C-alpha cells in the first residue's frame, strides 16, 4: 500500500540512501564547488494543496547550477514566440554529456535541447537580447516563486566558473560561428554563470518549482508568469532531457520529470500533486546526484507515484 507523506517518511528515506553520499563524486571542474561537504543530504516537498514536508539539510543553501536552465527557459518563453525559441534550440534528448561539443559541430550550431549547456547558453543569449538587466530579472522571478526575498547569487562560485569557462566559451563561440549566438559571448557567459550560482535550499526549490506541478499556478504567484501549455512542454523536456544521457534511466527508476544540477540538487515533479527537491553533492558519471536519485526512486516507489 502507498505510504502517507510525512517528515518522518522523508527522514527514513534519507537514512536509507545516506551510505551512497560517500560513493558519489563532488563536482571539481568548478573549483569553488569542490569544497562543498559530500555528506550533505536534504529533501523537501511542496504540494499543490499547500502542504510542506522536509528532512535532513533541507534548509541549507547550495548553488542550483543546471536547475536554473529551467528558469531561464521560463523567462524566454515569456519574452518570445514559440517558433522564435525552437528554431534556435531543439526539443530532443542529446544522449551526450551536458557540456559536449561534438554534436553541436555536426548539427550546425543548433543545440539538441535547452537543458544541455549549449541550449541554455542560446536561451541566455536570447534573454540578453530582450532584457536590460537579465540577472536582476531572474532574481525578481525566483524570489517571488520561492517566496524568499533574500535569494542571491553566490558570486564566488560565479567567478570560479568564469575563471574556468573554456568549454562553455568554446560552445558559445562555436554557435556564434554558425550564426546561432547574437550577443558578445563574455557578458552572456557571465549571466549564465550567475544563474548557475543562484543559491537556494531544498525548501525554497520545492516551493519555487511548484508551478510545474500546478499548470503554471501557485498560490503566491501572480497569474500569467507561465501558461499551462508551457508548463506541460517544460515537464516533457525534463522527462526527455532533464538528466542528460541518464534521462532514460531516471524515467525508468523514478518516473517523474526531473532536472539536476552539478551542485547535487535535483528537482522532480509529480504533475497535479507536488514538487520535490533533493540535495546530495556526490554525483554519478552523468553529473546527477547519486544519493538524490536513489532517494527519489525510493520515494516514488513507496508513495506509488509515476507519470507512466
Ligand atoms: O556550466 C556548467 O558546467 C555548470 N555551471 C552547470 C552544469 C550542470 O549543472 C550540469 N548538471 N548536472
UniProtKB/TrEMBL annotation:
Keyword set includes Hydrolase: yes
Record Gene3D superfamilies: DD-peptidase/beta-lactamase superfamily
Family the entry assigns: Belongs to the glutaminase family.
Binding-site positions, substrate: 66, 117, 161, 168, 192, 244, 262
Matches recorded under HAMAP family: Glutaminase (MF_00313)
Enzyme Commission number(s) of this protein: 3.5.1.2
Subunit structure, interactors included: Homotetramer.
Keyword field: Acetylation, Hydrolase
Entry keyword Nucleus: no
GO BP field: glutamate biosynthetic process; L-glutamine catabolic process
Catalysis performed (reactions): L-glutamine + H2O = L-glutamate + NH4(+)
Lineage: Bacteria, Pseudomonadati, Pseudomonadota, Gammaproteobacteria, Enterobacterales
GO molecular function, one term: glutaminase activity
PANTHER family with a match to the protein in the record: GLUTAMINASE
Pfam family, one: Glutaminase
InterPro entries linked to this entry: Beta-lactam/transpept-like, Glutaminase
Protein name: Glutaminase
Amino acid at each position: 500500500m502507498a505510504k502517507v507523506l510525512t517528515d518522518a517518511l522523508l527522514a527514513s528515506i534519507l537514512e536509507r540512501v545516506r551510505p551512497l553520499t560517500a560513493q558519489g563524486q563532488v563536482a571539481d571542474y568548478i573549483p569553488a564547488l569542490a569544497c562543498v561537504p559530500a555528506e550533505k543530504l536534504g529533501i523537501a516537498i511542496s504540494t499543490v494543496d499547500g502542504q510542506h514536508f522536509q528532512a535532513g539539510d533541507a534548509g541549507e543553501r547550495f548553488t542550483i547550477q543546471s536547475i536554473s536552465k529551467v528558469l531561464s527557459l521560463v523567462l524566454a518563453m515569456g519574452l518570445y514566440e514559440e517558433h522564435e525559441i525552437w528554431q534556435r534550440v531543439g526539443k530532443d534528448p542529446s544522449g551526450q554529456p551536458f557540456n559536449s561539443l561534438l554534436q553541436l559541430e555536426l548539427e550546425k550550431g543548433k543545440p539538441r535541447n535547452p537543458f544541455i549547456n549549449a541550449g541554455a547558453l542560446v536561451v541566455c543569449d536570447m534573454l540578453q537580447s530582450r532584457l536590460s538587466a537579465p540577472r536582476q530579472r531572474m532574481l525578481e522571478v525566483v524570489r517571488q516563486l520561492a517566496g524568499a526575498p533574500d535569494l542571491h547569487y553566490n558570486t564566488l562560485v560565479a567567478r570560479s566558473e568564469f575563471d574556468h569557462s573554456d568549454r562553455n566559451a568554446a560552445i558559445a563561440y562555436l554557435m556564434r560561428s554558425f550564426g546561432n549566438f547574437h550577443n558578445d559571448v563574455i557578458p552572456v557567459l557571465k549571466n549564465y554563470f550567475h544563474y548557475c550560482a543562484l543559491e537556494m535550499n531544498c525548501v525554497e526549490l520545492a516551493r519555487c518549482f511548484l508551478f510545474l506541478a500546478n499548470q503554471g499556478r501557485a498560490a503566491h504567484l501572480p497569474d500569467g508568469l507561465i501558461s499551462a501549455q508551457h508548463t506541460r512542454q517544460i515537464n516533457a523536456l525534463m522527462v526527455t532531457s532533464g538528466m542528460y544521457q541518464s534521462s532514460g534511466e531516471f524515467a525508468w527508476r523514478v518516473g517523474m520529470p526531473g532536472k539536476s544540477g552539478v551542485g547535487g540538487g535535483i528537482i522532480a515533479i509529480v504533475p497535479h500533486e507536488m514538487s520535490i527537491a533533493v540535495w546530495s553533492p556526490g554525483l554519478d558519471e552523468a553529473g546527477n546526484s547519486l544519493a538524490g536519485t536513489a532517494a527519489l526512486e525510493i520515494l516514488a516507489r513507496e508513495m506509488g507515484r509515476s507519470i507512466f
